[in-house]
Design a protein that fits this description.
Elements (H helix, E strand, L loop, with lengths): L7 E9 L7 E7 L4 H12 L7 E7 L4 E6 L10 E3 L15 E6 L5 E12 L8 E6 L9 H12 L7 H9 L23 H13 L2
Parallel strand pairs: 4-5
Antiparallel strand pairs: 1-2, 1-7, 2-8, 3-4, 3-6, 6-7
Helix pairs in contact: 1-4
Length: 210
């Protein structure tokens, strides 16, 4: 790179798999970000609450094998997981058009396609990361993955459904109040991003207490 990494911005389009109409976000993050930093930005832009495990799955073009980046110790089977906070995103995202899979919550199995759209020059006075576009609300946490999400939508649009009252109570009594839940509502201007270093300290201090 001829321009200092501090002045470069990476743009990604994030699309939740298996949902139609699509739920997606466009985010811009500093090129100096690690995969942990990118994880935090993805969580905030999508509307997740980082309550569950995650992993990035990418192709290693040099070794022609899949690489997993996330939190070591949370491995499934024998796949080595590299610590996200130690791996810069520039090591894997080198050309626009590259994709990666980001999975969040191994129980519900939310899979996201991460499309690397391009490299930009940091705008003077702009704050990053930022969400520049997107459509539709994030599914509620712990709703049961894609099948549970569609079931939820079917129930809440029918006040005569046998489970309508129960589902509304669940949305209201969640860790955040999801009611009224409008699946078509999303405003990128309302996205607020956490400091990834603070999130890291919070996540691992909580882990150490259990």
């Amino acid at each position: 790179m001829s321009t200092s990494k501090k002045h470069l911005i990476y743009q990604f389009k994030v699309t939740l798999d298996g949902i139609s109409p699509p739920i997606w976000r466009r985010i811009q993050v500093p090129a100096i970000y690690s995969f942990w930093d990118l994880h935090v930005a993805l969580q905030d832009a999508m509307g997740w609450f980082d309550y569950h495990l995650h992993t990035f799955r990418l192709s290693n073009s040099h070794k022609r094998q899949q690489v997993e980046i996330g939190i070591p110790g949370d491995e499934i089977e024998d796949q080595q997981v590299f610590p996200g906070w130690e791996v810069p995103i520039i090591e894997y995202f080198t050309q626009p058009g590259q994709t990666a899979l980001y999975e969040y919550d191994f129980g519900d199995g939310w899979e996201h396609e991460i499309l690397f759209e391009g490299i930009l020059i940091k705008e003077k006075g702009a704050k990053y990361p930022k969400c520049t576009a997107g459509e539709r609300a994030c599914p509620p946490e712990d709703c049961g993955g894609t099948p549970g999400y569609f079931r939820l939508l079917d129930i809440i649009k029918d006040p005569n459904h046998d489970e309508y009252a129960e589902m509304i109570d669940w949305l209201k009594g969640h860790v955040v109040n999801y009611y009224p839940y409008n699946p078509d509502e999303f405003d990128p201007a309302k996205v607020r991003f956490w400091n990834p270093q603070k999130r890291w300290k919070m996540a691992f201090s909580e882990k150490s207490e259990h």
